[in-house]
Amino acid sequence: MVRIVVLAALAGGVSVFAFAPFEYFLLGQVSLALLTRLLRGVRGARAGFLIGWAWGFASFVGGVSWLYVALNRYGGMPVPLAGLAIALFCAYLALFPAVAAALFVHFRRGAALRQAALFAGLWTLGEALRGWLFTGFPWLAIGYSQTPPSPLASFAPVLGVYGVGMLLALVASLVALTAWMKVGPSATGWAVIVVVGVAGHQLGKVSWTVPAGEPVVVALIQTNIEQGLKWRPERLADWLQTNARLAREHAADLVVLPETTLPLLADRLPAGYLDELARDARAGGGDLVLGVFLRDAQGGIYNAALSVGASPSQTYAKRHLVPFGEYSPPLFGWFYDLVDIPMSDQTRGAPDQAPMKLGGQRVAVNVCYEDLFGRELIRSLPEASLMLNISNLAWYGDSFAQPQHLQIARMRALETGRPMLRSTNTGMTAVVRPDGSVSGVLPPFTQGALRVPVQGYEGLTPYARWGDRAALLLALVAVGAGVVGARRRQPVDAPKMASGQAAQQQFPCKRD
After folding, report:
1. Residues 118 and 58 in one domain
2. For residue 340, what is the domain's CATH number?
3. Cα 390 from chain centroid?
4. Who's near 312: CB < 8 A, 6+ residues apart?
5. In a domain? residue 317
6. Does 478 share its domain with 424?
7. 3-class DSSP assignment, residue 32
8. Is 259 marked active-site?
C-alpha cells in the first residue's frame, strides 16, 4: 500500500504541470488516468481515501505553495509556522479528492463507461464543493488546465470550468479503464472519447457573442510597486506621484490602475489629488479606473474601484473577500497575532452592482480573487460588454500565482464570451479575448502600460444563462447512475470464488 500511495502522490505532482506556467494540458488527463488506475487496484473506501488524499496533497503543495510567500515574507509569520500553515491548508484541500476517490472505490461496478462516469461525476462534485465551502477555494480546479489550445476549452462557454473538468476526468478514466485495464468491452469507451473530441471541435466554431459598440483604446497600467515598501508611510508620496505620472503618460479612452494602487483610504488622500487624476483623464478624452479603499458612513472599509474622468464618477466594492487576508473568520482572531496584514478588516460590497458606463462600454469590474468564481461574475450579464479585473499579486512574489491567475482569467473570458482586461501591480497585466487567447501581456515585475484597442461584446453564452447548474446536474446524474448500478449488480470486485487461491489471483493487490 505504501508503494501505491507514493505513486498517487507522484501522479498528483504531475498535475501541476498541466497548469500555467507550464500548460502541458495533456498531463491533466495523464494524472487522472494514473489515479484511476491506482484506485482500480485496491479494495475498500479507506484505501481509496488514502490514495486520493495523497494525490491531492501533492497536487496542492506543488500548485499553491506560493501562499507561503505571503505568510512569511510579507506577513511576517515565522518559517516553521508558515510551513505548517501551508501543510495544514493543503491537507484540508486534499480531503475533497480523497472523498471522491473513496466513494469511487466503494461504488465502482459494471462496464468501463459506468465507472468512468461515476469517477467524473464524483470528481466534479468534489471540486464544486471545494469552490463553495467556507466561501470557497476553487484554485487548481482541473478544468483550468484546459485553456486553449486544449480541445476541451470549447466546452467552457457551455458547461464552465467544472464541466470542462468533468469531461477531462471522464476521458482520462475511460482511457485508463478501456485501453489500460481492459474493463469490459472497449468499443463504447473509445466511441465516447471520439464523440467528446468531435463535439469539442464543432463547438470551437460557434461564436456565442457578437461585437457591441465601437472599440475603445485601453491602457492597463502595471505599477510594479514592491509589496514590502508599499505600506511604508515615508514612501506614500512617491507612490502617489508614480500613479499620477503613469496615468498621465498613458492617456486612453479607458486607463486602469491596479488593485489598492493607492494604499490608503480615499478620504485621506491629499486635497485635490483625485481632482488632478480626473482632469488628466478628461484631458486625454477618457476615464480612469483605480483601486483604492473607500469608507462608508458607518465606518465600513471596502476594497474598491473608483472611476474619474469624462464620465460621472462610479464605484465598485469587492464582494467576495479573502478569509484571513481581508476579514477574519469566526474564532480565528488569533491568526492576526501571528501576521501583519494591512487593511485586514474589510466589509463586503453589495451582491448586485451595476457595470460602470465608461467610454461607450459597460465595464463589469471584479477585484483580484473574485474572478475565481464564474457563477458570481455572470451576475453582471448580459449588461456588461467588457470584464475588468484589477489585482495585486505582489503578495506572492515571483511564483506560479501570476501565470495561474492569468489562466483563470482566460477561462472566465471563455465562459462569458467577453474580453477580460487585467491591470495588476506586478503581473500578469493582459488583455484576454472572448475565445480565451491572450492578445497582449506585459512582462511581470516591470513598470509600464499595455495600450491596445478592445472591442466590447454582447449576448449570452449557455454558461452565462445556466451558470454551474448544467455541469452539476450532469455530475449528479452520473453519480446517481453509478450508485444505482452498484446496488443492482453483484460487485465485480468480490465475485464468488471456489477457492482462496482464485480470490488471490483476482486481487493481486490484496497483500497491500
Report:
1. yes
2. 3.60.110.10
3. 15
4. none
5. yes
6. no
7. helix
8. yes
Yes or no: say if 168 and 29 are a contact pair by the CB < 8 Å rule: yes
In angstroms, the first-to-last Cα distance of the chain is 4
Q: Using alpha carbons, list the distances in angstroms from residue 223 to 141, 301, 422.
A: 30, 23, 13
- Name the active-site residue from 127, 259, 326, 415: 259
Phi, psi of 347 (to 5 degrees): -110, 140
Answer whether the bond into residue 382 is a cis peptide, omega within 30°: yes
> Is position 264 within any domain?
yes
Give the per-residue pLDDT at 118.
Answer: 97
Q: Are residues 159 and 299 in the same domain?
A: no
Q: Is 230 a catalytic residue?
A: no
C-alpha cell at 166: 468533468
In a domain, 512, yes or no: no
Question: Backbone phi, then psi, for 417, in 5-degree steps?
Answer: 65, 30
Number of domains in the chain: 2
pLDDT above 70 covers what percent of the chain? Answer: 90
Residue 440: strand pairing partners: 431
509 tagged catalytic: no
Q: Which residues is 390 bridged to in the sheet?
A: 367, 423
CB 127 within 8 A of CB 142: yes
pLDDT in tens, 194-229: 999 999 999 999 999 999 999 999 999 999 999 888
Residue type, 71: L
Query: 511 in a domain, yes or no?
Result: no
Can you give the residue range of the structural domain that contains 455? 212-460
Closest to 462 (Cα-Cα) out of 473, 452, 454, 451:
473
SS3 state at 384: coil
Q: Which three cell numbers stand for residue 101?
A: 476517490
**Element housing 5 (H / E):** helix 2-15
Quick check: 221 and 353 in contact, CB under 8 A?
A: no
Separation in Å, CA 100 to CA 46, 51, 214, 263, 479: 12, 11, 48, 43, 11
Read off the pLDDT of residues 31-79 as tens digits, 9 standing for 90 and up.
Answer: 999 999 999 989 999 999 999 999 999 999 999 999 999 888 888 889 9
For residue range 110-164, list pLDDT tens digits in order.
888 999 999 999 999 999 999 999 999 999 999 999 999 999 999 999 999 999 9
CA 149, chain centre distance (Å):
18
Angle between helices 95-107 and 112-130 (to 10 degrees): 160
Q: Kindly report the three-state secondary structure assignment for every residue of 165-214.
A: HHHHHHHHHHHHHHHHCCCCCCHHHHHHHHHHHHHHHHHCCCCCCEEEEE
Q: Which of 90, 127, 230, 318 is catalytic?
A: 318
Catalytic residue, candidates 230, 368, 370, 415: 368
109 grid coordinates: 461496478
Residue among 120, 1, 101, 17 at smallest CA distance from 56: 101
Confidence category of residue 498, pLDDT binned at 50, 70, 90? very low
pLDDT in tens, 436-455: 999 999 999 999 999 999 99
